[in-house]
Amino acid sequence: MAPDDHRFWRERLGAYALGHSDADETAAVHAHTEGCRGCREELAELAPVVRRLSLGDGERVASSPAPPRDLGDRVLARVGRERRSRRARRRRNAVRGSFAAAAAVGVAAVAAIALVPRGDDEPEPARRGPPAETVAFRGLPPGVSMRATVIPRAWGTAITVSVRGAPGGILCVVWLERADGTRVSAGSFRYVDRSEGSRVMLAAALPRSDAVEVGLRAGRWTYVAPLP
Amino acid sequence: MPRSATLDQDEGLRTAYRAHGPELYGLAVRTLGDRGLAEEAVQETFLRAWHAADRFDPALGSLRTWLFAIARNVVIDIGRARAVRPRLADAAVVEDRPDEEEDPYERALLAWEVEEALRRLGDAHREVLVETYYRCRPYAEVAAALGVPEGTVKSRVYYALRALRNALEEMGFDGP
Q: Is A200 within 8 Å of A194 (Cβ atoms)?
């Protein structure tokens, strides 16, 4: 094969790109690519592939671990639970909406009565704080309880997590989840095993109205509690 | 994907899991180094996909690419959440977050991508790259073991790199 044959050179570019050419071959490839735009471009295309190759582990290439047989069923089951929970949230919201409408009528009536006798110089009643909502995590091991109370704040959501009965020292990671499944971290803590349990105040920079559930990972286990 | 098999229905999820679940699991095991966490990551990936099913547009990219984009976020979330050092709030650690390139989960994802692409090559191509590059065996030794001339091994290395480049592109992993 003639040395000026492109195929001859290109078939040497692979070893060269991998840094496997000896001094003579390296000098020859340099000399050739100086004057050959096609081979220069070819080398430029191989360079990122070699960089990617350097990130891999050749001993892991032979096989990839197979998932447990029931993982597909568990995926469907988890989505099924979430689907039911979403439907329940919608039902609750619909019920709350009708209660809210009814309550608004009542409040208006009370306000009308209250406003009539009060003079303009009387102080306004103290404003109520934002509503706190408490949710419990389900499916916990026997003897373990975990609750989260969320309170809307101007800066996001305050979350108080109460844990009781978990293994002492276990790392707990807490987040709020949006409807699209993305998460905003609320922080983490280690559970201190005391008879009265641990109570930790955390914060997430996500408006309460944007959060659909609180998630808590304790060690290797993950629990989620849908927010009303 | 026909309407009857979209991700917001069990049949669509089942089909998507059959097609992509095992590969997603491989990615999760490789990046998280833990089968239990990997199982959780796969479930979480499909759960997020289900939540966002109405935003999946096959005209913009394949289901596989979309699921892998979700899975990347999931394993990074799980990996970071698992980090031993407790963090109190995202806002407090923004400056401390390492560059993407230094993130061990990003690195593990890139490693898995190239390993998966290598698995898709023909045996002859994969073999020469594993032997000469990863195992650092001399070309003459590899040639003798394979019973072919040394020049053939060199030429296979070249075509293997080209095939690897194509495989990475086909998998949508043609980043830097």
A: no
